[in-house]
Automatic annotation (TrEMBL):
Gene3D superfamilies documented for this protein: 3.10.20.30, P-loop containing nucleotide triphosphate hydrolases (3.40.50.300), TGS-like domain (1.10.150.300)
CDD domains per the UniProt record, alphabetical: TGS_YchF_OLA1
Organism domain of life: Bacteria
Cofactor requirement: Mg(2+)
GO cellular component terms, semicolon-separated: cytoplasm
Record key words, sorted: ATP-binding, Metal-binding, Nucleotide-binding
Organism of derivation: Desulfosarcina ovata subsp. ovata
InterPro entries, per the entry: ATPase_YchF/OLA1, Beta-grasp_dom_sf, GTP-bd, P-loop_NTPase, TGS, TGS-like, TGS-like_dom_sf, YchF_C
Domain TGS: 258-341
One Gene Ontology molecular-function label: GTP binding
Name by which UniProt lists this protein: Ribosome-binding ATPase YchF
Length: 343
């Protein structure tokens, strides 16, 4: 999963990036992009590893991407910034909600709208170019897809009205449009970057409607990310932080994108795998290897909680909580799966 960090100048994007990736500050060159990969914290993987004592324990990972030349508002005509984040799975919009010398009063709603307008303009350019190309093809005798034209027409209508495409789940899910990687269609998490002493969301009238919002005190979290485990515990208690920004943002990102984890276990390896919610067992098998999907026979499934209650896989089998499922079984978060296949 790749998450792109965006926002207006002085919103604290770099500070957020460093807090989430536990990285040290860059050299200050805004022309250069920064990438940080973190392990997704999951206590279930730790407990499974303690139980099986495998040779390898593999967590899922998240990649945070901070594009270079990040002054979005100062260069609306320069679309390079948006080209950089088109391949991201979701966007983290850092919004200033702190005061400072020489800064205007925070205006979260206005800032969200300002960035949304840039995303919308960028998408509108793509839609209009594609519609022009389809019209040209039609004049040359090629028959365009009526479905694609209808979908692009709906996109143009929404974008002309300055509504981001993420508000239309059916458009987001349309396979015909996936190749366009529309920016305003990507899931977006609004990170309100607060003052050090402020851990509350602003009032409803200051928040954008219908958006997923959460608070981060980026400067504090940046300091926390550089501390030892013992220092971090004291710091968390002093500032009433119940979980680090990394943990909270990852959890919220999974929820926003409709993602879950399932596990494979054994003496060789305990591993977490990330899939979309409501994925069929046969498609979950493909995440591990295409041959497993091709030769899929059955999925032997045990819920994580049932394994913990039983104390061992053998005991869970005796209790009857290990079950065989077919191709169309919808994988549930926390499922431990052994795929039976033959190729």
């Amino acid at each position: 999963m790749r998450l792109g960090i965006i926002g207006l100048p002085q919103s604290g994007k770099a500070t957020v990036f460093e807090a989430l990736t536990h990285s040290v500050g860059g050299d200050g060159n805004r022309q250069e992009s920064r990438i940080g990969t973190i392990t997704v914290p999951d206590p279930r993987v730790d407990l499974l590893s303690d139980m099986y004592k495998p040779r390898k324990t593999i967590f899922t990972q998240v990649e945070y991407f901070l594009p270079g030349k990040a002054d979005h508002g100062a260069a609306k005509k320069d679309q390079s910034i948006w080209t950089q984040v088109r391949d991201c799975d979701a966007l983290i919009h850092t919004v200033r909600n702190f005061s400072g010398y020489g800064l205007s009063a925070p205006a979260p709603r206005d800032d969200v709208i300002a960035i949304d307008q840039e995303l919308i303009i960028s998408d509108l350019v793509v839609v209009e170019k594609r519609l022009e190309r389809l019209a040209l093809d039609e004049r040359r005798g090629k028959k365009p897809s009526p479905e694609e034209i209808a979908l692009l027409g709906r996109c143009k209508e929404a974008l002309d009205q300055e509504v981001p495409l993420r508000r239309f789940p059916d458009i987001v899910a349309a396979k015909l449009l996936r190749g366009f990687a529309f920016l305003s269609a990507k899931p977006m998490l609004i990170l309100l970057n607060n003052d050090d002493e402020d851990d509350a969301l602003p009032g409803a009238d200051a928040l954008p409607e219908g958006e997923e919002c959460m608070v981060i005190r980026a400067k504090l979290e940046q300091e926390l990310a550089q501390m030892s485990e013992e220092e971090a515990k004291e710091f968390l208690a002093e500032f009433n932080i119940t979980a680090s920004a990394t943990d909270r943002v990852v959890r919220q990102s999974y929820e926003l994108m409709g993602l879950i984890s399932f596990f494979t276990v054994g003496e060789d390896e305990v591993r977490a795998w990330t899939i979309a919610r409501d994925t069929d067992a046969v498609d979950a098998a493909e995440v591990i290897h295409s041959d497993i999907k091709k030769g899929f026979i059955r999925a032997e499934v045990l819920a994580y909680d049932d394994l913990m209650d039983a104390g061992s896989y053998a005991e869970a089998r005796k209790k009857g909580t290990v079950r065989l499922e077919g191709k169309t079984y919808k994988v549930v978060d926390g499922d431990i799966i052994n795929f039976r296949f033959n190729v």
